[in-house]
Design a protein that fits this description.
Elements (H helix, E strand, L loop, with lengths): L6 E2 L4 E2 L4 E2 L4 E2 L4 E2 L4 E2 L4 E2 L2 E4 L4 E2 L4 E4 L12 E4 L4 E2 L4 E3 L8 E4 L4 E2 L4 E2 L4 E2 L4 E2 L4 E2 L4 E2 L4 E2 L4 E2 L4 E2 L4 E2 L4 E2 L7 E4 L4 E5 L1 H6 L4 H15 L5 H12 L5 H9 L8
Parallel strand pairs: 1-4, 2-5, 3-6, 4-7, 5-8, 6-9, 7-10, 8-11, 9-12, 10-13, 11-14, 12-15, 13-16, 14-17, 15-18, 16-19, 17-20, 18-21, 19-22, 20-23, 21-24, 22-25, 24-26
Antiparallel strand pairs: 26-27
Length: about 260
């Protein structure tokens, strides 16, 4: 399963059925789970753990040192879950001592060509990153988020579950769950209704989230006033609870 031109360090731990394509390099601290396919000229470096049934396409670079001038060679890692598709030229860097020392990618994510995931990012499950999205350090992306092509995300920004960005969006602040944003800099433009329908949210839940959006963005309330109003709405529409919890956490302020 390992091409004759691939270089796999004897210290690497690969499941028996892992495939490694021509010219790929796998370092001594790398672990790769069963069913994973690695294309041509891929580099897996550093302390990197890749789960089961992933597909890593040609020229991807995973586990390289962080692009952070404060990094002094301390031990850090990348952890990637199961069932991910990582396309050509994707780069995923290791974590740093300023955070948890790890960059994490969850399960069943679809990461298209030229995406960059910087040090200490945390990506949930079932996300989609269209071509050339760029995440700066310490970014958190919730489950089922969809980032349009060439979306740029400032460091420390949090993106909520089921959020959506249009092509060319620049996020300098947190994007709440369920919210659609577009522009440079980003502005909110509604709820990700179509995505929610595809994921089984019923009409009542979507209506409740649209009401929550109006409360947060259209009624002229302060952020604290909106949060209190949403607390009451969550009793009738449980998905609103995730929005309330997102607003309660400290951050960079929200796209508004």
């Amino acid at each position: 399963m390992i091409h004759a031109t691939a270089i796999v360090h004897p210290g690497a731990h690969l499941a028996a059925d892992v495939e490694v394509g021509p010219g790929s390099v796998v370092g001594p601290q790398v672990e790769v789970g069963a069913g994973t396919w690695i294309g041509a000229h891929v580099v897996l470096d550093g302390r990197t753990r890749v789960g089961r049934n992933n597909r890593i396409f040609h020229f991807a670079s995973i586990g390289g040192p962080p692009q952070d001038k404060k990094y002094k060679g301390e031990d850090s890692s990348v952890e990637i879950g199961d069932g991910n598709t990582i396309r050509e030229y994707v780069t995923i860097n290791r974590g740093t001592a300023l955070d948890a020392n790890v960059t994490r990618i969850g399960n069943d994510n679809w990461i298209m060509a030229y995406v960059h995931v910087a040090h200490d990012c945390r990506v949930g499950a079932h996300t989609v990153f269209a071509n050339a999205c760029q995440l700066a350090g310490h970014v958190v992306v919730g489950d089922w988020a969809y980032l349009g092509a060439t979306t740029l995300v400032h460091q420390y920004v949090h993106i909520g579950a089921h959020a959506f960005t249009s092509m060319g969006t620049y996020l300098s602040q947190d994007l709440p769950p369920y919210v659609v944003a577009a522009g440079n800099t980003a502005e909110a433009s509604g709820i990700n209704s179509e995505g929610l329908k595809r994921r089984g949210f019923d009409a009542g839940a979507i209506a409740g989230l649209k009401r929550a959006y109006r409360t947060l963005y259209r009624e002229g309330l302060s952020l604290e006033e909106a949060r209190r109003a949403l607390e009451a709405q969550a009793a009738d529409c449980p998905p609103v609870r995730e929005l309330v919890e997102f607003l309660a956490r400290p951050g960079r302020g929200i796209v508004r």
